[in-house]
Design brief:
five-stranded antiparallel sheet
Amino acid sequence: TDAQNPALSQWRLSTSMFGRGWSLSWLSESLPNKPHTQMQWRSVPGYKGPGGSLEVPNRGQLLFRRFGPDSCIVELTIGYEVPGLLQPFASVLTPTVEGILRTDMQRFARYAVDHQARPQA
């Protein structure tokens, strides 16, 4: 997050594909959220990241739905535009991004379970 503007945060997506490493980054701003139930954001137009990388316009939201006394269902929705330079690779890029997001959501689930508030004895 940005110390001067906590509504802004910088993100990076890195992967290996086609025999080389790729990294895309973007600046996001938080949109109005509903505490404990919804987080949403959109990328800041014109931001190209360190080194002038490609701009990746995107927006998304996380919804948290109660699923019992100690658990919830998390639903992630993301929309993004594949940069023009990468359009020829869109059919490969989309499943790659989906795989990265799936792995990140699984990692988040493990983190949440490991760090959930436990009743005091």
